[in-house]
C-alpha cells in the first residue's frame, strides 16, 4: 500500500462545494479514503477544502471529483486562479442571499397568518400552502437534494435532518388542508404547521448565510497575502516595454519596477537603486536599500527609485507563493483534538434520527392520538435543533483564524498539530549561533605563537582550509582574509570533522583548524601564553578557533558574533510565559557562559555535537517536559526533528520552512513567546467552541424532545429550534474570529 512518503504519491488541495455540516465533511472524507489510489484525505469544513494524497497512476483528479459528486458534492479539480475562486464564492453567496431573502419575505405573512389568524379566514390554510410551497421547494431545495444524495449511499447529514423535519411538517399540513375531516371525525383539530416549515427554512438559510460570511472573514489572512502580488507586470523584451499578466512572466525576463510597485517575482536587481519595504517578510517597518546584485522577493513593495531585475523564480516558486501554500495547508490541516470530534460527528446524525424516532414513539404511545400534535412538534424540534454544524466548525474555524493571525505576525505555522502542541510547552531549547546571536561572526583577534616560522604561508593555508568549509565561522575567516587580498592554495587533502573543525594535509604535514575538543582528541599541545590568551578571549564572549599542526597550536583566532538586540527581551518574555530556557551550543564553555549571562539564560550546555543536542532534547522529554527546539532549521535539524515542536529562526528560507513546524519570519526571539501565546489563545478558543457546541446539544435536544413538558408544560416551538440551531453555528464562528483582534 502506498504511503505519503512514496515518490509516486501526489498531495493536492481542492476547493469543495456543497458542504453544509461536519457530517458532509465526514462523508466526503470516507468516500475518498475508500477510493483506489487514495492514500489519505482530510476535509476542512470551515475552509471548504480537501487535501488528498493519491497515486496518479491509480486514480486521477477527475475520478476523485466523480466520487465526490456521487454523494451530492463537488470538488474543483481544475486549476482556478484566486480571482476565479472568489467569483464562484461570491456567486454562491449571492444565490444563498437571494434564497434567504425570498424565504424570509414569504415566511413573514405565513407566520402572521399561522400564529394570529389561523381560524379567522376559511381560505387561510390554502393561502399559507401557496406561500410555503416555494419556500420549501425552491428556497429549501438544497436540503432535499443533499438528503437524497446521501440516502442513496445510506448516509445522513444536516440536510437529512432539515429535509425530514420540514418535509414531515409540510406533508402533515397538506394532508390536513386537503382532508381535514380525517381528524375532525376523531374529535381532533386538524392543525397545520406551514409557519414552522417556512420560518425554519428561513432561519436556517439566514444562519448559513451569516456563517458563510463569517467563515469567509476567517480566511482573510490568505486574501491579504494573495493581494500582495500584482496582476500585471512590466517587462523589457527586445528593447520594448510590455505589460503582461503575472502568469506569463518567465524566468530570465527583465522586469521593470516603478516607485510604489509591488515586486511581482523573486529576482536579482540588475539596474537602479531603491528602498524596498520588506515588512511582509521581516516584520521590520524600515525600508531596505537595494542595488545591483541584491535579491528582491515577490510581495515586497518598491518605494522610491526605479529599477530593473531579472526574474529568478516565478509563479508557485516564489517566496510569497511558498508562504501562501504553507498557510493554506496549515489552515486545512487537522488538530489532534479534531479526530475525536470527527468520530462524534460521524455518528451524530444517525443518533439524532434515533432520538427523533424515540421521541415520537414516546409521545404517541403514552398519550395516543390526543398527543399526536405534540409528538409531531417534538420530533420536528429534535430534528431541527440537533445540527452538527457548530460541532464541525468549533476546531477548524479557530485553527484557520489562529494560523492566519500568526501569518500576520510573521509566524508561519506548518500544521495544526504544531499549533496545538505549542500550548503544552514547558521547555524551550535555543541554539546560540543565529538564534541568540546575529549569526554573522567576524574576526576580532589573531594571535600567533612566537615560534612560528613561515607565518605568511601558514596563513594562506589556514585561509584555504576555511574557504572549503560552509560553517558560518569559516565564512567569517574567509571574508577576513579575502579582504586582505589573500589567495587560496590547494591542500593535498581536506576533510570536515563534524562538530570539531577541519583537517588538511600540506607538504606532507597534517594541519587542523577547530575547537578545543579537536585539540584534546588529537593530543595537540599549546603554549601557556596562547592558553591564557584564549581564556581571556572566551571570557569576553568570543569564540576561539585553534590552528595547529599535528603536535602544537600555531595560532589562535577570535571570532565575535554579537548578541541580537532582541534576545534578552525575547528570553524574558519566554520566562514570563512560564517556560524553562536552555541554551545549547557547540562553542566552548567560557563563550557560552558569557553569552548566557548577557541574555539571562540560567541553563546552558557547551561543546555539543548535533547528536548531543538531540540527546538533550530526549533527556528533557523523559522528565515529562514538552520541548521546543529553536534553531536555524539546518544545523539543528536532528534536535528539531526530535523535539515536540520545532521552531526555525530566519527569513523564511525554503529549507527552514521544510524542517520546522513553526517558522519565524523575523530572527527575533520575542516571536517565540508570541507563537506560544498564540497557540494558547487558539487552543482556549477551540475548547470554548467545543464546550458550547456539546453543551448546546446536551441541553437543547432533551428540551426539544419535551423533557420539561411533564413538569412545566413547556414544549419547544420548532421555529425557535430553527433559530437556535442557526445561532449556534454563527456564535462558534464569531468566537473564533475574536482571535483576530486578540493582543498576542
Task: List the main descriptive attributes of the protein structure presented here.
26 strands, 7-stranded mixed β-sheet, 28 helices, Alpha-Beta Plaits
In short:
The protein has 744 residues and is α+β, with helices and mostly antiparallel strands. It has five domains: 70 residues, Alpha-Beta Plaits (2-Layer Sandwich); 88 residues, Calcium-transporting ATPase, cytoplasmic transduction domain A (Distorted Sandwich), CATH 2.70.150; 163 residues, no CATH class; 138 residues, Rossmann fold (3-Layer(aba) Sandwich), CATH 3.40.50.1000; 119 residues, Calcium-transporting ATPase, cytoplasmic domain N (3-Layer(aba) Sandwich), CATH 3.40.1110.
Describe the fold and architecture.
With 744 residues, the chain is α+β, with helices and mostly antiparallel strands. 52% of the residues lie in helices and 18% in strands. It has five domains: 10-79, Alpha-Beta Plaits (2-Layer Sandwich), CATH 3.30.70; 226-313, Calcium-transporting ATPase, cytoplasmic transduction domain A (Distorted Sandwich), CATH 2.70.150; 318-411 and 676-744, no CATH class; 412-437 and 564-675, Rossmann fold; 442-560, Calcium-transporting ATPase, cytoplasmic domain N. Strands 14-26-25-24-15-22-23 form a seven-stranded mixed beta sheet, with helices on both faces. Strand 18 (501-506) and strand 19 form a beta hairpin.
